[in-house]
Amino acid sequence: MTRVLVAYGTFRGGTQGLAEMIGEDFRDKGYDAIVRPAADVEDLEDVDAVVVAGALYAGRWHKDARALIKRLAARLVQLPVWLVATGPLDTTAETKDIPPVSHVRNAADKIGARGVETFGGRLLPDAKGFPAAAMAKNKSGDWRDADHVARWVDEVDAQLRA
Ligand SMILES: Cc1cc2nc3c(=O)[nH]c(=O)nc-3n(C[C@H](O)[C@H](O)[C@H](O)COP(=O)(O)O)c2cc1C
User: Does the beta carbon of 67 sit less than 6 angstroms from any atom of ligand 1?
Assistant: First the structure.
């Protein structure tokens, strides 16, 4: 059974939820999908493919996602890898083809990623901390789109089978 690791970097849990949606869609297709915090991934010995997902904050890809790429680059170049960013607190991830932020583009170049994708984000109305609490007053909501995730996993599945 093909094993896919979905590693995530999150501050407020939204990216963990997105990673779990991705993992579930892989499982539905017969993959052995493991969903883990990026910071806990020590090696990639028993893994056949990798998705690295990170939250976007102020145009930056989550530090745990960046650190995973740096730490395991030598192995990641040998594997099929897809990079995921989650962020926009509106419908733009559905209506536009959002170009990856520079962190994601650089990481993709470094390891020869097969693809990059941006999904909508989530901000809870009771988000704590500065400036999230202020933003949440008029920008809270959940733009993680299950159909978008399912369509994307279909594409990745097709590439893995090719
Ligand atoms: C302070 C702050 C800054 C943010 N900056 C960006 C950004 O630059 N680009 C973007 O697409 N989303 C941005 N977002 C939205 C987050 O990426 C979104 O809420 C994401 O789902 C958070 O993931 P997490 O819950 O895993 O931490 C920002 C959110 C906050 C609270």
Answer: no
